[in-house]
Amino acid sequence: MRSTPPPPTGVVARPADPAAVTWLTDRMSLRALLHRLPFGMPAVAAVGAVALVVTAGVVLSGAPATAPHASAQGVLANYAAAPDDAWTLDDTQLPGAGGQGAITVAATVGHDWLISYPVGFKHEFMLVDSRSGRPQWDAPIDAGFGGCGITAAGEIGCAIRLQIDGPKNGFYLADRSTGELTGVADADDTATVLGFGQNFVHVNQSGYQVSLRTPTGEILWSRTFAAAARVGIAHGALVVATADGASFVVDQHDGTDRIACTQCSIDSFLTGITVTRTALGAESVTFYPATDTGIADRPSGTAKDSSLVHGPSTYPVIAPAGEGSSLEAAGRYEVVDPRTGEALWQIADPNLSKAGARPCGSTVSVARKDRSRVFFDLIDGGRRGALPAPALDAPDANIDNAACLGASNDVVVFANANQLTAYNVDSSGVDSSGVDAGRPAWTRPILGSAENVDGTIVLRQGSTLTALRP
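== PQQ-binding-like beta-propeller repeat protein ==
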């Protein structure tokens, strides 16, 4: 299919799919929508295949795809009001945790969270109930220099390595109710364990060797990468990023590459993944749809001379890249559906900044040149609020200096090392008092870091871990 050039600023192009215009009639008239856009002349266009080359997809064989991880997509539970502490873990619940280092959530399945924390040089693991924070075992698992993971079926596997006292080196299964270990195989060199479907991914201590093994320790495949590997899961597919800037989607059956690239990154979204290539003069973003059995190994489209605007979000936001982008006088952004390789909508305006766009959950915040901001809905471009330019004496209120935790129907939450800030992002564009949405809904001081774990805000402050109640 030939790519379709973007319409001029201020012109709304009719989508090819009639269903795509439902939002225009259901939510507001086109005239009302354009009236409410922030940049004077209309700036948002619903479009089809904008700057994309579309090709047919071939299904990547594999296990049924799992639902996209809420944390990676920036999906939050509804924190419409300032949250209270649901529970806190410290050395009173986790033996030896006090003052030793950060407590983290290593893996989750349903309401079971596998908590990791250091005791000296060792890695300890404890299973807790995410609803109450209550430890499920009488004592933690001491993995030494190894690690533990959970499969989709809830089976817990641990590689015990270089432990001074206790079980010898090897791979063990842990009883989910008691934490008691049963040895099943040798695993002398495994440092990291990740549950993948019904099996476990093992990464050795150097990070170069990755293998897939059954719960009984049988090696299904093993391969060595050219640099240390970081392993993740997207739509039921195994994704590997290496320290030399390469990325791979790996066939779970034999460990071969289904998608591979250099000077690139792979990111996961609601309906697929993106492969962003960053080599100078060859910048592009390629879209691969998610399927019932994994990820298609042929792309739905490619946006040339483009870059991905990074941030946890349900759909990718792309912007111009390469030498031509430095000549741009204003910002231009497109929101693309990886399932089709087509742009859902685009925005361009002379008053729009080339920098500062912040995708977050189901929203994107774009900056004007005067540093004020507007929030839009990622799916249809509907306006969801605005922010004035931040005051110079209020750095914590500046989204530029904060990381996105995620968004719900009512708020979008950002965090820095000092504060959480939630902003109203009502779908009508105004809050309950009739005032323009986008204003801070609540703030909370923190001393540490915050993360999104399965839609729950979790704070790591010193040697404590606190879950906030929605």
